[in-house]
Amino acid sequence: MKAVVVHGAGDVRIDERPRPEPARDEVLLAMEWGGICGSDISYWKKGASGTAALAHPLVLGHEVAGRIAALGAEVTGLSEGQPVTVHPARPEGGDLLPERLAGRTNLHPRVRYFGSAALTPHTDGGFSEFRTVPAGQVRPLPDGVDTEAGALAEPLAVALHAVGRVRDLRGRTVLVNGAGPIGSLVVAAAKYRGARTVIAADLSTSSLSVARRMGADAVVSVSGGEELPQDVDVVFEASGAPAALGPVLRATARGGTLVQVGNLPGTAEPSVLGDLVTREITWIGSYRFVDEIDDALVALRDGLDVSPVISHRFPLDQAELALAVAADPSSSSSKVMLRLATATPA
């Protein structure tokens, strides 16, 4: 089978690997769609994502969906041909979480995540024609949700987790700073959770266009000289740009809440943070998700349309080009999708 494998910085290849066979508690998936994430780009460009550095080749991809091709002997409740997506996280080891973290498995000290080099040996992702998956990580797609939309359940879960870090958005005004794929999905998630008004801000006019189609009531073109609104109840910072923190904190209402969704650098960067104290802002981090992928599938079933976030589609054999387009600000890309199935279904 073919797989998209990163061997080091700037070195991604389409490798031939043996087709796997499912263990007794696994299913074999025939993969159909995968979405390119910032971490995939980082592994390709830098050989690392955050503090996770490549020690050996890694199959990329954690936003994936496909169909069950075979079942392990002990698997029940699933069937061959069934369209599914994957919860990409599996906590490893017997460490018990402290009481303050009860239920927050996304903060487990050791998590195996599809397409991640955080642990050694690394955890291969799903950018391949086939992938075996523990049955407990498989999530059937609801009727009416195809596998392309199903591959976006994972980033939608990230957005729903971020929105869920605030107790109740119903009737509130929300600002989303950064309208890339995650930011635009946060826009949709906030509207889905009942926000009255959602404003999206970005440097890119094409990203703002996506945010509009994902439900933003208003947009702010930062590159066009527009300023962020003031005194916003709840702000989601989805750009991960340290330079944005000062203006974003100033936009947050006194006593308001700022949810940090975009990954900030792990190195020292200048930022203006004074308003955090003088405005008594509650600044909350948001990391991946727990089981919100199930909520994402319900939202998709209920009609939440994620298709506007998709800007490009490439076949698996053009994975490097797809990564380059996703990484290039001048491409006006949003979510770039890989068609993982290389054979036309009978």
Automatic annotation (TrEMBL):
State the species of origin.
Answer: Streptomyces spongiae
Q: Does the keyword Flavoprotein apply?
A: no
Q: Which family does it belong to?
A: Belongs to the zinc-containing alcohol dehydrogenase family.
Q: Which cofactor does it need?
A: Zn(2+)
Domain Enoyl reductase (ER), by residue range, is 8-338
Q: Name one Pfam family in it.
A: ADH_zinc_N
Q: Which InterPro entries match?
A: ADH-like_C, ADH-like_N, ADH_Zn_CS, ER, GroES-like_sf, NAD(P)-bd_dom_sf
Q: Determine the domain of life of the protein's source.
A: Bacteria
Could you tell me the keywords of this UniProt record? Metal-binding, Oxidoreductase, Zinc
Q: Per its UniProt record, what SMART domains does this chain match?
A: PKS_ER
Annotated GO molecular function terms are: oxidoreductase activity; zinc ion binding
| Protein name as catalogued | L-idonate 5-dehydrogenase
